[in-house]
Amino acid sequence: MRRAKRLDPIPEILIFDVDGVLVDVRGSFWRSALETTRFLTGKRVTWAELYKWKNKPGNNDDWSMVSNWATALGRPTTYEQARDAFQRFYWDSDGRPGNVRREKMLVTAEQVEKWAGRFELNLFTGRTRREFAYSFERWAGTRHFRTVVTMDDVARKKPYPDGLLKILRGRDPRAALYVGDNIDDGLAAQAAGVPFIAILPKGTYEYRERAMKFRELAAIALLPRASAIGEWL
């Protein structure tokens, strides 16, 4: 958690990714991606394989990842086919509770309120607006985020920087800090010229390899959890 370098200037704007940063999605999005790939291919794909695919550039969007993964396993799958199959596992379907119910917040509303006392807070997520609303519309911390940009709000998804640029609205990118947990988050930050912090818990699968990739993307720090940001700053 020691600083990799001094920030100059100290950021005025904090922009957070959602999945893996504010919300634990291993039981929701990731499990749904695994089950969808098994359903489409008929193969017993593993969590280790999922982590490898998730760490490839361009796979921040789970529908894209499933499409790429299933196709590589010999079952050509379009983005739309992957998306439609994914919904059966993520949302409640045919009387079966969906994996969305497994989501857990990784930070408290009180922590977000403390950040809001020091910084302008925003969100740039690869979720759809519906997925975001389901998890956040009743959470007390949501009111502290000034701007929320979902995949429905930009023409190009991560790793393109469109969401970050939309939040900045022409302001100096050096006045901001983007907090993410994925290679595409780092690529988007790099393209926008926004300093980047990577959330990388100890014990994460292929920790060393992921840490190396984040450092190659000029991450200014690797933190085990989002709640450590205040102390680090």
Give a nutshell description of this structure.
With 233 residues, the protein is α/β, with parallel strands linked by helices. The protein is built from ten helices and eight strands.
In which range does the helix fraction lie?
40-55%
Number of helices, where a helix is a run of at least 4 consecutive DSSP H or I residues? 10
Distance between the termini: 10 Å
Taken as a percent bin, the fraction of beta residues is 5-15%
Characterize the biggest β-sheet: 6 strands, parallel
Q: Which spans of ≥5 residues are poorly predicted at pLDDT below 50? A: none
* Radius of gyration of CA atoms, rounded to a whole number: 17 Å
Strand order of the largest sheet: 5-4-1-6-7-8
* Large-scale geometry: globular
Helix and strand pattern: EEHHHHEHEHEHEHEHEH
Average pLDDT, rounded to a whole number, is 94
Please state the structural category: alpha/beta
Number of strands: 8
**Which quaternary structure do these chains form?**
single chain
What's the helix and strand layout?
Layout: E1 13-16, E2 23-24, H1 26-41, H2 47-54, H3 62-72, H4 79-90, E3 104-105, H5 109-116, E4 120-124, H6 129-136, E5 145-149, H7 162-168, E6 176-180, H8 183-192, E7 196-199, H9 207-216, E8 221-223, H10 229-232
Parallel strand pairs: 1-4, 1-6, 4-5, 6-7, 7-8
Antiparallel strand pairs: 2-3
Helix pairs in contact: 1-3, 1-4, 3-4
Fold and architecture overview:
It is built from ten helices and eight strands. It is globular. The protein is 40% helix and 13% strand. The strands form two sheets. The chain has a six-stranded parallel sheet with strand order 5-4-1-6-7-8, covered by helices on one side. A two-stranded antiparallel sheet has the order 2-3. The protein has 233 residues and is α/β, with parallel strands linked by helices. Helix 8 links the parallel strand 6 and strand 7. Helix 1 runs parallel beside helix 3.
